[in-house]
Design goal:
CATH architecture of the largest domain: 2-Layer Sandwich
Number of domains: 2
Radius of gyration: 19 Å
Number of strands: 5
Order of helices and strands: HHHHHHEHEHEEE
Bound molecules: zinc ion
Strand order of the largest sheet: 1-2-4-3-5
Helix content: 25-40%
Distance between the termini: 49 Å
CATH topology of the largest domain: Muramoyl-pentapeptide Carboxypeptidase, domain 2
């Protein structure tokens, strides 16, 4: 209701003034959100769980080869990720997370904290089990790991022109992973990986390349054995990027 009123007022101001710049009216208040609400402006030096919540959501806005730590410490890496997020969505890029940044995040997140264009149901197929059970970590940990992957993919999707990315496989129990011929050390058993299918709108190689600056340390695609029909993205501590035909 309040949003609608603000919008009407803004429209009225625009109509009267004629040439009011967008930045003068586009300052949405940080609204409460059913998933998570930030209660303070965050900038370098801040620490806490609210910083971690922010880091999860900007983890896909890193430089090539960078991996953002979800450590609750707002250092230069977090500030730079926030800057890229802000620039990516047309906000003032100052690296400080305030009402405008939170407002954009509220727009992007669903009630269960997943980003707008990805849902747990796309990541929990698990050979038809539709859950996060039976992996190498607890279901809660797998789900948390998947959430990070989703936000990285949301960033990737936006950078690739807001085109659909189709998930063909993500979390797998140990037995599910074995049954589909996954590696015995596969990140899929941790909820740390996703396979992006051929029916995605960006090409397999476009997604492979974009994954480098979305925080993915494991990227496999065209030309890597078993990866000609999907691009695999994953989070791990050491880097392994391979796609001989990209
Ligand atoms: Zn995979």
């Amino acid at each position: 209701m309040r949003k609608r009123l603000t919008f009407l007022l803004a429209a009225l101001v625009l109509a009267i003034a004629g040439t009011v710049t967008v930045s003068m009216v586009a300052s949405p208040e940080a609204a409460a959100d059913e998933c998570y609400t930030w209660n303070r402006t965050l900038s370098q030096g801040a620490s806490g769980s609210d910083v971690t919540q922010l880091q999860i959501r900007v983890a896909g806005w890193v430089s090539s080869g960078e991996n953002l730590a979800l450590d609750g410490q707002y250092g230069p890496a977090t500030a730079n990720a926030v800057k890229r997020f802000q620039a990516g969505y047309g906000l003032g890029a100052d690296g400080v997370a305030g009402p405008q940044t939170f407002g954009k995040l509220y727009q992007l997140q669903d009630g269960d904290c997943t980003p707008a264009h990805f849902a747990y149901s796309e990541f929990d197929d698990n050979c038809g089990a539709n859950n996060f059970n039976g992996g190498r970590v607890s279901a809660a940990t797998a789900k948390r790991n998947v959430l990070r992957v989703m936000w990285q993919l949301e960033a990737m999707r936006h950078k690739l022109g807001d085109r659909p990315i189709v998930i063909t496989s993500s979390f797998r129990s140990v037995s599910c992973n074995a049954s589909v011929g996954g590696s015995s050390t596969s990140l899929h058993m941790y909820g740390q990986a996703a396979d992006l299918g051929l029916s995605s709108s960006p090409s397999q190689c476009q997604m492979w390349n974009a994954g480098k600056s979305a925080g993915f340390e494991e990227l496999l695609s065209q030309g890597y054995p078993g990866h000609n029909d999907h691009t695999h993205v994953g989070n791990k501590s050491s880097r392994f990027w391979s796609a001989p035909n990209c």
